[in-house]
Design a protein that fits this description.
The complex is a heterodimer.
Chain A (H helix, E strand, L loop, with lengths): L3 H29 L9 H29 L7 H4 L8 H22 L6 H9 L1 H14 L8 H21 L6 H12 L10
Helix pairs in contact in A: 1-2, 1-6, 1-7, 4-5, 4-6
Chain B lengths: L2 E5 L31 H8 L7 H11 L11 H15 L4 E5 L9 H8 L1 H14 L4 E7 L4 H11 L6 E7 L8 H10 L21 E5 H18 L10 E8 L5 E6 L4 H7 L7 E4 L5 E4 H4 L6 H6 L8 E4 L6 H15 L5 H18 L4 H13 L7 H17 L3 H8 L41
Helix pairs in contact in B: 2-3, 2-8, 4-5, 5-8, 12-13, 12-15, 13-14, 13-15, 14-15
């Protein structure tokens, strides 16, 4: 088999993964921001967020396996989860490993969400804001790929712009009537500090 | 949390032994005539508490047919058995919470009971605690309620027990004393209902099996434990033996709390408060039903009979409307209260209650379409909340709807045609406003409650 195929596959799936994870980020941020229209309601935004995250993970697996299986660069399976120890380009590969670790944590806590406290799940899920930029930097800085190509940088710019735009939407003042009603509830039913060991 | 703690360590020595039973046919079991609330008088009247295992207690309560008096009417024997099973299965000491909060503003019975017979309530709580192997008893009262002093004074009078007994003040909001809200408050300071996913009889206060029972329920339990189901059932109905406390208020001459045997006709319950048995009355509290007193004068006051007559026993309160009183206007007020009181944690509370409150108000302002909206909305709200709060509001609204579209159809027509409602001022008490504390109009300090004979005290 021509090993060039694996190398190209790895580069291509890496780029596709970035685009997919960007979409997952945008949809997740929109979910938290209660975005939805009649034709594409909030439940659909959430569902697409979940489904695309699984798709993105599948592409990421192909990206990683093909890069290691190709054998052209010095990588092994430990480098996938243990950062900065790779025999080739350890820093930029390491950023990808950290992103993979965070992604695994997010995936596991989401699978077990029913059994975890909402606070814990949320805290881990927040690390997506670290995972995604790390993945993007990994693609940009890695030598031997397409990171510095104009078309790839253009994709990066579009991805960053999309996430920043959805963040701006998410952080706008929340005037949703449900949020206002819930805020009233917090005034009417304040939680007391009952202290002690109870 | 304000808590007064009593760590008491040695067994009781001064209980009266071999005490005679009180007259089983008298109806002043909970609110005795001519007795002070002191421990000495209490023991002289009733004697010492016996001891019992949880199985014995559950069996006694089952035999006595005791139903919870907090509003839901759940069989207390089954509740005790459930906590006992959880205590045995999880090998954890249980917790007993005596709910003396009385969140429903139409009811005064627990307040009067605690003032008059604090030791009976404490007896019940401690007896249940002993039977369940509980090492912690919480007496839950509203913020700043006089009951907290009464209970603390009563505890100081008592001999020591191995149980940790605390008097805990709970926010004086309608839903804060719902059982799961009480448990959640004791655990976290958040006094909103916690839903039904985690049963409190298995995982309640401190994660331990917890018995939450109304103050009157525990007082009745203390009587059953002392004198047995036969004595208890000497009066009352076969289905529901014993006595109960009823708060009669509204347009009556002597508003207050009376103790009656179950099955006593509504007319004579009302007569004790100087109330007429004509006109409309709200039965069972803010989650109750509207009944026409002239049609129900002969109905016995008990859970089953009231339900069969279209009423509701609920918290055991009766609010009588004055002649010409407006059921529609009163209901709109109460629904607004329910909507404001809601915790807004789930849809029925957050969207449903404000919607039906607005509908009922709109109906009163002549919006005929509100009838259809109510008929559409009530069934989809019912049974969907995480607690029973929306269901209570729906039951009240449905009852009001039935009244105003049939018997009070003429009056509804006046509302719908823009005629002025000539009804006298509203009488259903909603005094504990579910609003931020600073804006809460408080019940005037030292306001009197009225005893079973209509005397102010």
């Amino acid at each position: 088999m021509d090993t060039q195929i694996l190398w190209f596959a790895s580069r291509a799936t890496g780029a596709v993964s970035l685009v997919l994870f960007t979409a997952v980020m945008v949809l997740g941020i929109l979910t938290a921001g209660r975005a939805g229209v009649a034709a594409f309601p909030r439940a659909a935004v959430l569902r697409l967020h979940r489904t695309l995250s699984l798709t993105a993970m599948a592409f990421l697996v192909v990206h990683i396996v093909s890069a290691i299986a190709d054998g052209y660069v010095d990588l092994n399976y430990w480098d996938v989860i243990i950062p900065f120890g790779a025999g080739w380009d350890p820093f930029w590969i390491g950023l990808g490993s950290v992103a993979v670790d965070l992604m695994i944590a997010i995936g596991i806590t989401s699978a077990l969400r029913r059994h975890l406290s909402p606070t814990l799940w949320r805290a881990v899920h927040f690390s997506a804001y670290a995972m995604w930029p790390l993945a993007l930097l990994h693609g940009w800085g890695n030598s031997g790929g397409d990171g510095q190509e104009t078309w790839m940088i253009a994709i990066d710019v579009v991805c960053v712009a999309a996430v920043l735009a959805s963040l701006a939407y998410r952080l706008r003042p929340d005037r949703h009537p449900d949020s206002l009603a819930r805020r009233t509830a917090k005034v009417v039913h304040p939680v007391r500090d009952i202290g002690g060991d109870r | 949390m304000t808590a007064t703690q009593f760590d008491i360590g040695s067994p009781a020595l001064n209980f009266v032994i071999g005490h005679a039973m009180p007259d089983p046919y008298a109806t002043d079991r909970l609110l005795p005539e001519g007795r002070s609330p002191s421990l000495a008088d209490h023991l002289a009247r009733l004697g010492a508490m016996p001891r019992a295992t949880s199985a014995q207690l559950a069996q006694l309560l089952e035999a006595a047919g005791l139903l919870g008096r907090g509003g839901a009417g759940f069989p207390t024997g089954r509740k005790v058995a459930a906590v006992a099973a959880a205590v045995a299965a999880r090998r954890l000491p249980g917790v007993v919470v005596a709910n003396c909060c009385e969140g429903d503003p139409t009811s005064l019975k627990d307040r009067v009971l605690v003032e008059r017979s604090p030791h009976l309530v404490i007896d019940g709580a401690l007896h249940a605690a002993e039977a369940l192997g509980a090492d912690r008893v919480v007496l839950a009262v509203h913020d700043d309620s006089p009951a907290r002093f009464t209970l603390v004074a009563a505890l100081l009078e008592r001999p020591q027990t191995s149980c940790e007994v605390t008097v805990v003040e709970v926010p004086d909001r309608y839903i804060a004393s719902e059982a799961t809200a009480l448990v959640r408050y004791l655990n976290s300071g958040d006094a909103r209902p916690a839903g039904r996913l985690v049963p409190i009889w298995e995982t309640g206060v401190g994660g331990r099996p917890t018995l939450v029972a109304n103050a009157e329920t525990l007082a009745q339990l203390a009587l059953i434990a002392r004198f047995g189901p036969a004595w208890f059932g000497a009066i009352g109905t076969p289905a529901e033996p014993g006595t109960c406390l009823v708060t009669v208020g509204g347009a009556v001459r002597r508003p207050g709390v009376v103790e009656v045997a179950h099955g006593t006709p509504l007319a004579s319950v009302l007569g004790r408060a100087g109330a007429p048995s004509t006109g409309w009355a709200l039965l069972g509290g803010l989650a109750g039903r509207w009944v026409d007193l002239s049609a129900t004068a002969g109905v016995g006051f008990s859970t089953a009979e009231l339900a069969a007559a279209g009423g509701s026993r609920g918290v055991g309160s009766i609010v009588v409307l004055p002649p010409g009183g407006c059921v529609l206007g009163e209901t709109a007020r109460i629904l607004r209260y329910h909507a404001d009181a809601g915790a807004r944690q789930c849809g029925p509370c957050m969207f449903g209650l404000p919607a039906i409150a607005a509908d009922m108000t709109a109906l009163g302002s002549g919006d005929r379409g509100a009838l259809d909206r109510l008929r559409r909305r009530l069934p989809v709200i019912n049974g969907r909340g995480g607690c029973g709060h929306p269901d209570g509001a729906v039951a009240l609204a449905a009852s009001a709807l039935a009244v105003v579209t049939t018997r009070e159809g003429g009056h509804l027509h006046q509302h719908l045609t823009g005629g002025r409602c000539q009804a006298p001022p509203f009488v259903v008490p909603l005094d504990v406003a579910p609003a931020p504390r600073a804006a809460t109009p408080r019940r005037p300090a030292g306001s009197a409650f009225i005893d079973s004979r209509g005397r102010r005290s």
